[in-house]
Amino acid sequence: MTSPLPAADRKTGDSRDQAPSAGRLRAVAGFARSEAGHAAVLGLVGASMITFGGFGSGSVRREDPLLEALHLSWLRFGHGLILSTILVWVGVLLMIAAWVRLGRCTLRGTTTLHELRWVVPVWTAPLLLAVPMFSRDAYSYLAQGALLRDGFDPYAVGPVANPGILLDNVSNVWTTTTAPYGPIFLLLGQGITSITGDNVIAGTMLLRLTMLPGLALTMWAVPHLARQLGGNQATALWLAVLNPLVLIHLIGGVHNEMLMVGLMTAGIALVLERRHVAGIAVVAVGVAIKATAGVALPFLVWIWMIHERDRAVAEGRTPPSPLVLFAKTAGAGLAVFAAVFAAASAIAGVGIGWLTALSGSAKIINWLSLPTIMAHIVTVSTSWFTGLRLGPVLEVTRAISAVALAVILVAVWWRFRRTPREAVMGILIALVAIVVLSPAALPWYYSWPLAVAAGFALSTTTLMILVGLSTWLMLVFQPDGSIGLYTLVHVLLATFAAIVAAKSLVTVDPLRLRSAPAADAADTRSGAGAAPGRD
């Protein structure tokens, strides 16, 4: 039996135990009083407003017994819908304002990477309770998972083959479309619907929770990319993770891009850190979620080749010829990818039919893709004398863009092969080309290149452009998932907000509403230089 400590020792032991806790509390209190802390609270308020407003104006179920049981179904109609919509848009604007304000602190160096990491769960937590926001894709995910659960092949039939409550909430355009996602994502959907059955609410909540590992991976990978590529780690996390375009669309909207982007960036970071097999395996898992992650693989072969060549030189050996190196690294990479993908497909009991379903996005027509813009310009400018219709012209512009994309991808892969940094730049350019030249693009697609771009040293001007673009993309869709691009007033308001947000990164009062603007000048600095903060 041990004897009790003397009173003095007990007191000393207590102080030792309490000191770290007291220090953490002081740090939290200090952050809460800072400008960055105020921004974090503002973002939390915005995220909460989005969640509450979403119950009426989000991508709600077509029939919602829960709202009716809570006597809140009035939020979906008339004045209730107007109130809900206002709540969502005010919440979105507050999150954007908080993000920009946090960006000013990050560029000045008054907040740290550690503090920014803690802001992520603060802003994410309210969104975990929201209905799907700005998109109905979550319902399609559940319906496709239910197909596999009930013995159908999601690569052969669409959700319409399996009638039920889950099908009732799928957007009409996707009811007959086969699944364009990889086998691992189908397995996730199968597992979720096996647990929750046809309970849409439980299924949506569990589906959103499966996106959180992707968020965690992105939080880990983006600072690692910045460390390898010469960027600023805190700025990278702020741009690629705390960005409202990412949190609201990928977490609030429940998009599998969150998993895909997390796995892709983590794989790139691992390969840059010379953990080649692990990195390619992680990217392969990302491809088994969504095919876009596969764009990184050919560029990772270059990085592996460079590392093998450098290791041979460091060990005093003559490096093998480039052709031998390529055969060795490409062969090993292909073997790793094939093993991961074959295992995932075997477990899911499906083949590669999802590759043929990738063209399903062609059903989407909006101004975010270059082929659609070209088709609209041709039909509008020539309609008075040719009578051309959008459909046939769109087929031509999409064909031209597909050829251009193929040429660009091959050219970029060959051009950006000399250094690891060049190879990652090639991944970035390839992702941008895919988003711009694909038959269709949606706002959250821009999270793909954004996560990679954040790792580079970006000038203040570049950051302002990215802030403006992210803001505009965040605002051009409606909370219920409908497109606002064809409403002129909506587009003009989104453009105005984007310009204000971009200027606000370097200026506290971009609209010059204060009487003494000079007092509010923000001295902002990025990893690549400084920008004068004049009002």
Give a structural overview.
The protein is an all-alpha fold and 535 residues long. The protein has helices at residues 7-33, 35-57, 65-69, 78-108, 113-127, 137-149, 165-168, 183-196, 200-229, 233-240, 244-252, 257-272, 276-287, 297-314, 322-348, 370-386, 390-415, 420-437, 447-453, 460-475, 488-504, and strands at 524-526, 529-531. Strands 1-2 form a two-stranded antiparallel sheet. A hairpin with a 2-residue loop joins strand 1 and strand 2 (529-531). The longest helix is centred in the N-terminal third of the chain and has 31 residues, at 78-108. The protein is globular, with a radius of gyration of 25 Å. The termini are far apart. Mean pLDDT is 88; it is low at 1-16 and 516-535.
List keywords for this structure.
two-stranded antiparallel ribbon; disordered N terminus; globular; 535 residues; mainly alpha; 66% helix
Question: Biggest sheet: strands side by side, in what order?
Answer: 1-2
β-strand amount: under 5%
Which stretches are low in confidence, meaning pLDDT under 50 for 5 or more residues running? 1-16, 516-535
- Structural class, from secondary structure content? mainly alpha
Beta strands, count: 2
Shape: globular
Mean pLDDT: 88
Rg from Cα:
25 Å
Order of helices and strands: HHHHHHHHHHHHHHHHHHHHHEE
The largest sheet is: 2 strands, antiparallel
Distance between the termini: 71 Å
Number of distinct helices: 21
What percentage of residues falls in helices of 4 or more residues? 55-70%
